[in-house]
Amino acid sequence: xxxxxxxxxxxxxxxxxxxxxxxxxxxxxxxxxxxxxxxxxxxxxxxxxxxxxxxxxxxxxxxxxxxxx
Length: 69
Known about the structure:
Elements: E1 2-7, E2 13-15, E3 20-29, E4 34-41, H1 43-67
Antiparallel strand pairs: 1-3, 2-3, 3-4
């Protein structure tokens, strides 16, 4: 069974013919085994995750500012 997936620190690739973005990830299994894989996203998914990540970054910044007060 898979426990979680982490994003690898590599550049994202874009295939203009397929109109897909590929993000390298590592799949972590509960037994400790890991394996490389790829998360493939269409343009709509990329835009959605970009919005969600921007929101997460903004929320983190607000939390950090509140912690320094």
